[in-house]
Amino acid sequence: MGSVRCSSFVKINAAAATLLLSLHLLLSSPTAAIDDEETIISRFQAYLRINTSHPSPNYREAADFLVDQARSIGLWYQTVEFAEGKLRQYLEAVRRLKASRFQPLRSIYISFVPDEEIGGNDGAALFVNSTLFSNMNVGIALDEGMANPGETYRPFYGERSPWWLVINATGEPGHGSGLYDNSAAENLQKSLEAMRRFRASQFDLVKSGNRSEGEVVSVNLAFLKAGTPTPTGFVMNTQPSEALAGFDIRVPPTADPDSLDRRIEEEWAPTSRNMTSWFELKVPVRDKFGRPMATRTDGSDPWWTMLEEAVTQAGEKLGRPEIFPASTDARYFREQGVPAIGFSPMANTPILLHDHNEFLNRQVYLRGIDVYEKIIKAYASYAEHTSY
């Protein structure tokens, strides 16, 4: 790879803070000329310079910045709660539509909500269960996707639901030199071995190319806790009476959650081995109507068809629909029965989620605004009623 000038990249703040806004197009407000690329980039850079990193995030400055941007293009805004997010491309796309005097048939809302990285319970989860959201009568939701080092954009029609499982094993304590049946450590080890075998069977499907990472159940150890601590370490001649382990499990919408629940109860944490288990987090795999939380991606869904056509009209290519391997706020919309597509127009871009020096090429950023402009225009021009 040849050398790239630093000026051709725009740095990304991994914890950009904003606030939740409901934005409507004001068709009667004045419009300005379409801005040049340098002006667009400078706005993005100004936003990224706001310090929103913990432990002392400046949410107020970030919120004020977004409100000023909304006002500058004649948008209404409603402050609901301080939040986190980075949706500058949406605002720039709407800015262009306003400048072109586009007349939408549907309302366009852009939301900035908090805490997506830690579960979203105080952000999107509250929002979708609010009267404000129900009154919006949302037909389609676009949320974040993922970068792609290749030439195409990656669309996501579903995602894996996080199940954060804790297993607690108990047994009689004893001297470190003794051999005991059903000790806490032995009971937990049996579970670890069973879970490792299951994990390997799922991983083999990915390695063989039969499944993508988003299509299998992943099981990863998050923590182990056992033993009697001392100021310098642990007591080494005692077998503990209790041992705990935590696991990050991700369940795709194509999986059977009832079968996995039975596996946990009967094989991974059976009461017959003096074990108990609970979930620190258990996101549903099915929506409130009992259906798998997955959005249709065929000709029967007008929203998908419009997305395909808009990307093509922008001169870009859409890749094969995928299941997002991690989780996003889109799950909260799907849980309500609202179709949602994860989409980020970032082709020819390395995947650097939360990595050091996370960046986005400036031309990729600008191209993404072009693509969003076409998508939003297509969605806002669709007049027919849709139902799921």
Could you outline the blueprint of secondary structure elements for this entry?
Elements: E1 9-11, E2 17-19, H1 37-48, H2 59-72, E3 82-84, H3 88-99, H4 124-128, H5 131-136, E4 141-143, E5 155-159, E6 161-170, E7 174-175, H6 184-207, E8 218-226, E9 229-230, E10 233-234, E11 238-239, E12 242-251, H7 257-268, E13 275-282, H8 302-313, E14 322-324, H9 330-335, E15 340-343, E16 359-361, H10 362-380
Parallel strand pairs: 4-15, 5-14
Antiparallel strand pairs: 1-16, 2-3, 5-15, 6-12, 6-13, 7-11, 8-12, 9-10
Helix pairs in contact: 3-10, 8-10
Please describe the structure with a list of short key phrases separated by commas or semicolons.
19% strand, Peptidase M20 dimerisation domain-containing protein, metal ion binding, 31% helix, four-stranded antiparallel sheet, Alpha-Beta Plaits, alpha+beta, Aminopeptidase, 388 residues
